[in-house]
Fold this sequence. Notes:
Elements: H1 42-168, H2 185-188, H3 198-202, E1 207-209, E2 214-216, H4 227-238, H5 247-260, H6 266-278, E3 281-285, E4 299-301, E5 318-322, E6 327-331, H7 333-353, H8 361-379
Parallel strand pairs: 4-6
Antiparallel strand pairs: 1-2, 3-5, 5-6
Amino acid sequence: xxxxxxxxxSAPQPDQGLPPxxxxxxxxxxxxxxxxxxxxxxxxxxxxSAGEEPxxxxxPAAQLDVSRLRSSSMEIREKxxxxxxxxxxxxxxxxxxxxxxCERLSKVREQLEQELEELTASLFEEAHKMVREAxxxxxxxxxxxxxxxxxxxxxxxxxxxLKTLVITSTPASPNRELHPQLLSPTKAGPRKGHSxxxxxxxxxxxxxxxxxxxxxxxxxxxxxxxxxxxxxxxAWRESPTLDKTCPFLERxxxxxxxxxxxxxxxxxxxxxxxxxxxxxxxIEPVASQTPPTVKVAEVECGSANTxxxxxxxxxxxxxxxxxxxxxxxxxxxxxxxxxxxxxxFFTYIRYIQQxxxxxxxxxxxxxxxxxxxxxxLAKLGFFPQEV
Length: 387
């Protein structure tokens, strides 16, 4: 608030001996600084009044510059604000994209971890499965190897016996070294008991078989061939087969095989007969056990003191296995002799069917007759004693 200039009401009277007072100069009141009520000195007022004259002349230009500065600062402020907003928006957009990328990568990582776990589990499962299958195959291979070795040993023994039978000891020309009872009295040494007269052996002469047209030589024990049986055997030998309907095998089944394998336990007897016909029956000693390396689940049927075929209380030193079954049946020596006799017969006729026996009809017939005799003796209860 501007104050009016102070004017003195009257000039003071000068005192005597004092200098005259200074003339009064009008000084306006002006608020300067924080203290608005303080009066300035006269010198300062003079300087201020002297400096106000040029300020009044340059006032519009300064105001124009101030307005320009204000407008430019506003523009700069607005542009800076817009730039910052754009930068903020771009940063938020990039941050959002990075968040989405991080979320996508997290999902990919979770999916990969899940797939890795599933793959690891499947690999472990497949590895266990392969190990289990390998163990089963190894056990089966070891079992087959054992069976093959047993069959090889059996076949080698059969081949050796067959060679001895076919080559060195046939009914037509028996091997006297293998059959000491056929040696002459001078080579065999003195015998106690009855002795045969020389005229007895010289009285034996060959007999002619008119039906077959062959001369059949009875052996020295006085046996003679039945012409009907020989004719049936010759008809079968021309076309060997294991068909039970042919006359030769039909007679053998009816007279020898059937009665020899007719045991008390009818159901097991039928299974044994089928296994013998299929050549899948195995006889093994009771003492032989499965090696520890071959883990095969065996099922023992019955006990070693009861025959599974006859049902009688007997000491069973052998057991049989039918085909690929793991069930074992204990059998008595008599039952074993009956089964072995039938198996020997089927083995020989299979050799004939396969062309392994290269002989004439007469020696082959005599061997078949001998095998039938063994079946007849076995079914009557005769069997060799085991040492």
